[in-house]
Amino acid sequence: MAHPSSDEPEPCSLRALALYFLRLGAVGFGGPIALAGYMQRDLVERQRWITKEEYVEGLALAQLAPGPLAAQLATYLGWVRGGVFGATLISVAFVLPSFLMVMVLSAAYSRLGGLVWMQGLFYGIGASVIAIIARSVFKLGRMTLAKDRLLWAVFAVNGVVTAWTESEIVWLFLASGVLLFFLRGRPTGPLAAPGVSAFLPLDMLVTGLSGAASSETLWRIGLFFAEGGAVVFGSGLAIVPFLHGGVVNEHHWLTERQFLDAVAVAMITPGPVVITVAFIGYLVAGPLGAAVAALGVFLPSYLFVIIPAPYFKRYANNPSIGAFVSGVTAAATGAIAGAGFVLGRRAILDVPTIAMAAVTWIALVKLKKAPEPLVILGAGAVGLLLRGFS
Question: Could you report the per-residue pLDDT of 348-369, keeping only the tens digit for each?
Answer without folding.
Answer: 878 888 888 888 888 877 776 6
